[in-house]
Amino acid sequence: MDWLNLIVFPLIRSVILLFILLTAFAYLTWYERKLLARFQIRYGPNRAGPYGLMLPAADAVKAFFKEEVIPNHVDKVVYLLGPVLGLIPVLAVWAVIPITKNTPAIADVNIGFLWILALTGVESYGIILAGWGSNNNYSLLGALRSSAQMISYELPLGMFLVSILMLAGSFSLVQLVQSPRAWWEWLWLWIMFPFFFICMLAECNRTPFDLPETENELVAGFQTEYGGMKFAMFFIAEYLNVITTSTLMATLFFGGWKLPFGITDFLPILGPFVLAVKVIILLFVFIWVRASIGRPRYDQLMRFTWQYLLPGSIVYMIITALLVLFFK
Amino acid sequence: MTLSVLFFVLIGAISLAAAVGVVSSNHPVHSALFLLAHFGTLAILYITLEAQFLAAIQVIIYAGGIVILILFVIMLIGSEKIVNQAEHRTWTPYVGFALGIVLLGGLAISLLQGFTGVEPNAALLQGGSPQAVGLELFTRYILPFELAAVLLLVALLGALLLARRPKLKIEEQ
To answer: Which of A170, A172, A304, B93 is deepest in the core (most CB within 10 A)?
Structure first.
């Protein structure tokens, strides 16, 4: 049956994936609060359930039962479109990420890389539209800051992705994880990893790059006028973005679902769990950075991308091209 | 009518509606959003034609780059509703309409002529797979490709020149 393969099975897979991702989001908030508390020598959440494990459920109930307020001065359609457009691309990236041997989450398309690039490009719409639709100066300033930042950091990100692409020789992420890499390729990739990580921090608007919502100058930035479930959607989008980028980095730099020595090739069922462990470690790094580093000034942030990161990434790309040409 | 044709017609209709929305809505930001919807549906049309690479490029460049810049400019310059000044000149809509029909006719003629000889080319491109497009770009179409690059460079330098601050005449003391 054609339509069964085309529509029904992907639909079932998407629903399962959505369920897993939203649960992961809920517990990421718990993980982050707990870890931040530990970094600051506090206990963190410990009231709702054992170790505060029921806290996400309590938060969800709270968000659902809040009154949905839509201010009078907003552009209603754009205002409501903002959170939705913020959430969709973050979820859609997952379609091409491989979770075990020969199995992508939804579909193995031959443009996997471009799919990621396209969706990171579209991600900023949610924030721009929310900022403008709110009809509020603080929101607009936050949105402008955020989109300028995202566009700037997408450039080196694109260059780095092109370099990875040249090393892999295929647009498909499934192929990328499965094709063997020489030791110098791993080494060369890992040299780039810190810079890629910086770009990803900026893409996610995470501390130290959370200037779009600096509370001491812009109230809450682009999300000032949002409350209840609509605010929760921005929150979900931000945290899912962190999870998605961690998964991407695990896939691109650390072999995704694979373990060394081909263990997972014999036991493909282990794949998703291996991937999950790698993602949790990377999430720890995200939170660690948040707990340790303060935010820079906005002009410092922009100067860093345009004057150092972008030229650096271009040089990196050229060297990668030469390496591939002579050694591969 | 097969399912794919139905899909094509549906998406095409949405795309057209969005295009009409671009010119008919009287708020610049809404126009930009309609443009975004139009580009998105165009990308979906490319996918139904098996040209996944083109679809991705469409989204990356137009949706991810150009419309964001358009929105930026609108927001920075000010986005009050346009009081339609063209209404005062009653002839503009008619001239616009006539020019549109001329453009449509020209496009239709060139497309109809092109359809006779375009099939082998499309087969060569394998529905626009990255490798095929790349090979064609860097062998047969290398000259137009490089010319486009030079044109972009010139535009970039021009923008830099225009945006540069005029040199201050005051000497440092």
So the answer is: A172
3-state helix, strand, coil in chain B (%, to 5): 80, 0, 20
Interchain CB distance below 8 Å, B60 and A125: no
Q: Tell me, what's the pLDDT at A302? A: 85
What does the radius of gyration of chain B's CA atoms come to, in whole angstroms? 21
Q: Are residues A280 and A152 in the same domain?
A: yes
Query: Mind listing the pLDDT tens digit for each residue in B71-126?
Result: 888 877 765 655 555 556 677 778 888 998 999 999 888 878 766 655 545 545 55
Size of interface A-B (CB pairs under 8 A): 65
Question: Is 90 exceeded by the pLDDT of residue B26?
Answer: no
Class in CATH terms, B1-78: mainly alpha
Within 13 Å, how many C-alpha atoms sit on residue A152's CB side? 24
Q: Which residue of A has its CA nearest to B72?
A: A144
**Same domain, residue pair A300 and A315:** yes
What residue type is assigned to position A59 of the chain?
D
Prior bond of A10 cis (ω within 30°): no
Indicate whether A190 pLDDT > 80. Answer: yes
The model's pTM is 0.80
Same domain? A40 vs A159: no
- As for how many domains chain A has, the answer is 2
Provide mean pLDDT across the span A152-175: 83
Domain ranges of chain B: 1-78, 129-163
Contact criterion met (CB < 8 Å) for A122 and B59 = yes
